[in-house]
Amino acid sequence: MGKNQLAWAYLSLVVEGPNAHLGTLIKQGHEAEKIAAGIKGREAWIGTELLHETDSRYTWDTAHKDLEIIHRLGGRLITPHDVDWPKDEFEHAFGFAASGMSDHVRTYQDDAVAPHALWVRGGDLKALSAQSVTIVGTRAISHYGTEVTEQFTQNLAAHQWTIISGGALGVDTVAHTQALRAGGSTIAVAACGLDRSYPAHNKELFERIVSSGAGALVSEYPPGTPPQRHRFLTRNRLVAALSQGTVVTEAAWRSGALNTLSWCAGLGRIAMAVPGPVTTAGSLGCHERIKNGSAQMVTSGDDVRSLLGAIGALDVIEQYELNFSASPIQGLTRNELRVYDALNTHGREAGDVATDSGLPLALVIHLLVELQNRGLIMRDGLLWKRIKQSELNK
Question: Which domain holds residue 183?
Fold first, then answer.
């Protein structure tokens, strides 16, 4: 248990994220140990705002205990310095938030910053979120909502999209459960410490996510932190930020899932909503977002993949450049490029491509087949190789 990990664990408890002032110190290059010591010592260089925000907690040092608990659970604490930190997703999302282009983010400005540390149980968070979509909705799910959520999840999981949700009852539970049944990957983002199961009803589901080998539980909060209303609202920004887009499959007028959808748009992601029966009030929230243009209407997993494949992983201007380029290679999505760039003309095994690209092996195999179908690469036994540029241009 290194000093650096202890410092991050201390900061995770004492500076309840998100915190822009702590983020600024980290960006300035200050080490976690130095910041932690500065907060404990009430040193002026820490800044008036951060000293004030930590005034009631700076004596709370349970870092040893918190790290022992997460390690006992088979988990870990990760920070921006770790290889499995979802750097690309957070830079895209919170970089967009910092641009000031979103009205929603102006309303929640204090929360519109990246987390400084994450507590994780399960798989590689960076790899899992590289091709992912958030599915959320009402807790009071109807038969229609269940059927729609199952259909969307099955389609997306079959195409190697990780399903992200908040672990709540209703739509969240159906999405996580169906992803596992389909042999896919899923991430549940909690609003409490990972030593707690909230809701208690989903304790078994959470353990299956961890033990599946293709999922993860994530929290911004250290062990022992109870679920409270404000933490669910803060958690929603992570649910939206980790994926390339958010789908609300069923939501009434004041459904909390709509907050996640607002965060999705505010973080520069693709917001989507599924229309529901006009004979009930269960989808009024979805209908309003579609009607006012703040969410794209989607009626199938194919619709979702079409939207995310077109602009979900890249800035719109960049995508126009790729779409209208003469080169088929330049028209690849970000993840397709990561796989293609890991290849050569001599041949490499899929496992080596997965290691170099930083993507899950199942996703890499899926993308290799896609690239082969487009005539950009070929398979020779166990090896995958690029087709030479001279051959592509023929």
Answer: 109-312
